# Entry
Amino acid sequence: MQLQSQLVHAEPGHRVVLVSAWQQGACLGSAVGEGSNAEAAEDRAIERLLRRLSPNAEVPIATEGTTAATADPSAEPPTRSQAPPHSVSPEPSVKDPSSPSAPEAEPPTDPEDWSDELTEVELQLKRLGWGREQEATYLARAFGHPSRSRLIRYADLLAYRNALRQLAEGSDPALVPPPLRRPELLGQCDQLLGQLQWGASQGREFLEKHFALASRQQLSDEQLLQFNMLLEGVLIGELPVR
# Structure
């Protein structure tokens, strides 16, 4: 089993890392962890992931420079892989018609006019002091291609704009964290809801309790990440169901 890590959120004194477990090309699951630095967040994510994969086993917390052991001593030990953000495959979505459905509503219609968002992107790039070469470097890391014209999804444009807002002037595009990718977060959410065997009403009740909203589509990317972490907490017994 191989573990792949991705830094998905960063701010002063706070990091969030997504870790996924892979075996023979199949994703076994994923988890997110928070910490004051990337190493602590990664260790927390690995601990939560292994507890999800082996809920009845006692899982040690991995420390920097070591790899957490699998619950089954005869199993192949996991190895870490710090993959580039754009190379980590999205979490597969649980879409079996017989499985409980996630709390959903029709997604909002994308606006036809994106001029305001594109104008702000230009202003943010000017604030950062980035030219086309620096922007291409960041886009290639975050979205897998170097051209803004290939951001054909409104959600990706918003993620790009919001990520630029959070960067400090003079930031290095080769080092700053990439934006959150909403499809990956939704896929992870689907998997967590499926593992919990929650129907739509139960998932919606949990969402309303913590965010006072009726649909995941109303959550920002940061809120969706937090929602996933709450679901993981319930799954591994850190939080009550209600």
